[in-house]
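Quick one: co-fold with heme C.
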Amino acid sequence: MNAPEARPPLTVRVRTLAIALLALVVCVVAGLVLVVQLGVYDVAATHQHLAPVYKLLHHAMARSVQARADQAPPADLDEPSRVEQGAVLYQGHCLQCHGAPGVPPEPFALGLRPKPVNLVPAAREWTAGEIFWTIKHGIKMTGMPGWKYRMADADIWSVVGFVRAMAVLSPNEYAAMMRRLPEHRHPMMASGETASAARQARAEPAAAQLPTSLGSVAEGRLKIDAFLCATCHVIPGVVGAGFHVGPPLAGVGQRAFIAGVVPNQPENLVRFLLNPPAVAPGTAMPPLGLSEEDARDIAAFLYTLRTP
Ligand code: HEC
Ligand code: HEC
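Sure, here it is.
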């Protein structure tokens, strides 16, 4: 008999390792198949993504765009004439989902998940080439259409020019620019009716007489996701952008004033949510088509946010 063998021969060790790895892969694949086949992940657009899923998807999307955006912008990208041409195209093709300073997205767009983001952060942080690529090719598995076969490159660059300009326009400046420009008429719209007139009609405040009572916190929590509040505000517990277009809403329940103009009391908050510009003229927060009940529920939720 030889001395006791301390370790099995190399080939045996390699084989054991290979079997262990294979078993691991089989388990992972079986787990994924189970998750898919049992319908575990909730695809309902009425429920937000899990925060890690949203972050991962958004990051992967941004990296994918960065890896592909290779076209250089034309020299006249920010020229007023190009920007104005882009503004008309934006009104016809983008406003419905992304809104504009003081203008909310259309009701259908509020229901999209992922949410059509507010474009101010992208306009500030993305290169012109990245914005161009995104508009031209769209983004799979989101509502973002690719415009390649529907808009010429030159027109897409004009939209890019406008998106960059829009990021620094106040609602009043945007409205003034729109008054100067020819309105983009949608072919399906009744003759004479313009897109902005139709939107204006819908944006009228729901009621003049408001009760002072608040609604349901739980409903408000769901509705704050449903009305795209998180595309402009960082809100505790609500999955969405991690940047600020409006003030963060953590601690809003404790603030002395709403939008710096009216005392933070329930009836003022409800009035503000129903029609922000009526309470804070010139504000960049648009009326989002809330019913009075929606506003009371959302206000109830906002008053639970007491720690900044
Ligand atoms: C049908 C709705 C819809 C329309 C119309 C639309 N978009 Fe989008 N857009 C989206 C959605 C949804 C996203 C994805 C947001 C995300 O990644 O979470 C998006 C993403 C983007 C992004 C990437 C920004 C970011 O930070 O993720 C840009 C830029 C953009 N859109 C610009 C435009 C422009 C310009 C137009 C008009 C030519 C347009 N979109 C038309 C829904 C729309
Ligand atoms: C397009 C971007 C945008 C969207 C969408 C939006 N807001 Fe705002 N919000 C703003 C801006 C900008 C302000 C700052 C207003 C000001 O000071 O004029 C603001 C202010 C507020 C304030 C006052 C905060 C303070 O400290 O004074 C509250 C509350 C608020 N928003 C709640 C909401 C809720 C709830 C929703 C969804 C129903 C929402 N917002 C959607 C941009 C937005």
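If it helps, The first strand starts at residue 257 and ends at 258.
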